[in-house]
Design goal:
By secondary structure, the protein is mainly α. It is built from eleven helices and no strands.
Length: 270
């Protein structure tokens, strides 16, 4: 495997990124995910720390399930384009609906695992509130919230990793859980470094642009004159999400295009 191979799939994935239908579909999905994030963030404005943690992480798992489904559609359309076939979103969608729904269910185990961690964290908060001995439990079990929060972050990263590793397998091979696990295990065991390198290339434009947008949003919050009112805060977040979705949509399309190219490239290296 040479640098020319990576250069070729990168350029081909980029060529099919800036297409009107793809950008429209992805922008709509990102806007819906943004609304979900705003809704959960708004609910957490006047809640306790335990509930705030749940409302902060749950949108990540829910949005990853939605993006898994839309990723299947984008990869199948991209596959037809590369094969010089007529790629109609309507036809691909009608043939892929069952697979898209099934792929979104892959995020359910992660949601259940996170809720289990969240419940254990709630037990720690209950022990901490016991009169007299709560402070003792807080000191002796101080490692517990650290490990639980670390587990929540790990699950969030895992849910995002599924978008790169799992989506192309489901899109090109179908929703066979046994085959999915076998293909994924072989890929990770064969050349983990190169696999992670390809994943980094796919995610780098998205991460860089997201960082710039988050920085701009933080600067916008700093000059907000009505940020003491929860209603104004949620409305501000809502309107900021519109350019967020529009600007990030090309990077999401490229991410799935490159994920499909990476999957096929790794398959050829057997």
């Amino acid at each position: 495997m040479e640098l020319n191979d990576i250069q070729f799939i990168f350029n081909r994935a980029l060529t099919h990124t800036f297409e009107r239908k793809k950008l429209l579909v992805v922008s709509t999905i990102l806007l819906l995910c943004g609304l979900l994030v705003v809704f959960f963030r708004g609910l957490s404005l006047h809640t306790g720390q335990w509930l705030t943690m749940s409302l902060a992480f749950l949108p990540i798992f829910l949005c990853s399930g939605v993006l898994l489904a839309i990723g299947v559609l984008l990869i199948r359309v991209y596959h037809d384009q590369v094969k010089k076939k007529r790629a109609s979103f309507r036809n691909v969608l009608s043939k892929s609906w069952d697979v898209m729904i099934g792929s979104s269910y892959l995020s359910i185990p992660l949601i259940l695992a996170y809720l289990l961690l969240w419940m254990f964290l709630g037990i720690f908060f209950l022990l901490n509130d016991i009169p007299g001995v709560g402070g003792v439990f807080s000191v002796l079990l101080s490692f517990a919230p650290f490990l639980l929060n670390l587990g929540a972050i790990f699950l969030s990263l895992l849910s995002i990793s599924l978008l790169f590793f799992v989506t192309p397998i489901v899109a090109l091979r179908g929703m066979n859980r046994i085959q999915l696990s076998q293909v994924l295990a072989k890929r990770l065991q064969k050349d983990l470094f190169f696999t992670l390198f390809l994943a980094t290339i796919a995610a780098l434009p998205l991460l860089l642009l997201s960082g710039l947008l988050i920085l701009a949003a933080a600067m916008t919050d700093a000059v907000c004159l009505t940020c003491n009112d929860p209603l104004y805060i949620m409305m501000q977040w809502f309107f900021i999400m519109v350019p967020f979705a529009l600007i990030l949509s090309p990077t999401v399309v490229f991410f799935f295009n490159f994920a499909a190219e990476s999957h096929v490239l790794m398959q050829r290296q057997k």
